[in-house]
TrEMBL record:
Protein's name according to its UniProt entry: Ferredoxin--NADP reductase
Annotated FAD binding sites: 37, 45, 49, 89, 124, 290, 331
Organism per entry: Alkalicoccobacillus murimartini
Keywords on record: FAD, Flavoprotein, NADP, Oxidoreductase
Keyword check for NADP: yes
Length: 355
């Protein structure tokens, strides 16, 4: 824990794509930068889909989420920002001298001249199966996300949920699992229409309107071996043998530190209003990524990058009003001169330094 006031130029709250790219850009603008992330790992929502292939980032071939995460992490560390993980910001205030104070769950106070909010939809807490004792199976065969498809090879899988994720995982697992059943409270499914049609036309068995009523453990009581489903109109009970249960009941969000801050932010249902420069209603606080809304907002990883660069440029001007309004392009930017030398030396040790 810091015993003195270590004041940063920029503190970025949230280590998803918006926060990580902002950290890189902030280093490029020679600002003393800190990232604070609630989770133990950086990456934000991409941590939820490490095996999915991402196609829509300009200039990048179709790439699995995990690789995009690794690239983003490496890029964010280019100018060695301070990184605090497993730290949730719970309070955001401003002192009379203008320094922002951020209180974290570790007990530490973070001091900063300005802030970039990159908290996406807030602390992402998976909505759990509301059945007493269900948590004991989380170490064996009750899953809230799919990290490795192979784990479900030749297994009888039951998925509970009717949103995008439930449909997606049903389609992804159908070719390799022994069987896939999807249990949902309604017969309408969320997600892309073509994915829902694909699921309905496949071997996936759709059970509606049902909910998961009870989990039955094996003899050792460590893994689920049967599930009781309840028909929501007739109350009829149905037993299913399972090897694995996946629950996709959505997420709960926590943006309390923003909503309860004495600084008044312009928010509406978890979305923060910003102008085209990514300025919030509080001077010195900028924002980027899924958290924000403005005209033409692009809710994509690529959109988060653009927001981040804009937010950082404004942060630079906030601290140094005489600074240039944008960073010089990276290919001609002096900040990279030494790093380019090192890269070229690695590639071509003989001709390095002649460029
Ligand atoms: C299943 C799925 C598939 C997707 N596929 C694609 C795709 O193919 N292409 C694409 O462009 N986009 C895709 N997206 C969208 C993309 O992931 C998001 O647009 C992107 O992650 C937004 O980045 P962000 O940094 O704004 O927010 P997030 O990724 O949500 O990151 C926010 C971070 O802030 C942290 N945080 C929140 N509150 C606090 C706090 N109080 N203190 C500290 N830390 C905090 C969170 O823990 C989180 O790590 C997909 C999304 C999902 C869910």
């Amino acid at each position: 824990m810091s015993t003195h006031e270590d004041v940063f130029d920029v503190t970025i709250i949230g280590g998803g794509p918006a926060g990580l790219y902002s950290a890189f850009y902030s280093g490029m603008r020679a600002m003393k930068t800190k990232i604070v992330e609630y989770q133990a790992e950086l990456g934000g929502k991409i941590l939820l889909y490490p095996e999915k292939i991402i196609w829509d980032i300009g200039g990048l071939p179709p790439t699995p989420g995990q690789q995009v995460l690794t690239n983003l992490n490496d890029q964010a560390r280019t100018f060695e920002p301070t990184i605090c993980t497993s730290e949730q910001i719970t309070e955001l205030t401003r002192r009379e001298d203008g320094i922002f104070l951020l209180k974290g769950t570790s007990g530490e106070t973070h001091y900063s001249k300005c802030i970039v909010l990159a908290v996406g939809h807030g602390i992402f807490k998976t909505a759990k199966l509301e059945i007493e004792g269900a948590d004991r199976y989380e170490v064996t065969n009750l899953h809230y996300t799919v990290q490795q498809l192979d784990k479900f090879k030749d297994k009888h899988v039951l998925i509970s949920g009717g949103g995008n994720s439930a449909v997606d995982w049903a389609n992804a697992l159908e070719p390799l699992a022994a069987s896939v059943k999807v249990v949902h409270r309604r017969d309408e499914f969320g997600g892309h229409e073509s994915n829902v049609i694909h699921m309905r036309n496949s071997s996936v068995e759709v059970l509606t309107p049902y909910c998961v009523e009870e989990l039955h453990g094996d003899e050792a009581g460590t893994a689920i071996e049967r599930v009781t489903l309840k028909h929501l109109e007739t109350n009829e009970l149905l037993e299913q043998q399972v090897d694995a249960v996946i629950v996709n009941h959505g997420y709960k969000m926590d943006l309390d530190f923003l909503l309860e801050s004495p600084l008044t932010f312009d928010t509406n249902e978890g979305i923060l209003a910003v102008n085209e420069k990514m300025e919030t209603s509080v001077p010195g606080v900028f924002a980027a990524g899924d958290l924000v809304n403005n005209d033409g907002k692009l809710r994509l990883i690529a959109g988060a990058y653009v927001d981040g660069a804009k937010a950082i440029n404004q942060a630079k001007l906030f601290i140094e009003p005489d600074a240039t309004s944008q960073a010089y392009v990276s290919s001609h930017n002096e900040r990279f001169a030494k790093k380019n030398e090192e890269l070229l030396k690695k590639e071509d040790p003989v001709h390095a330094g002649t460029h």
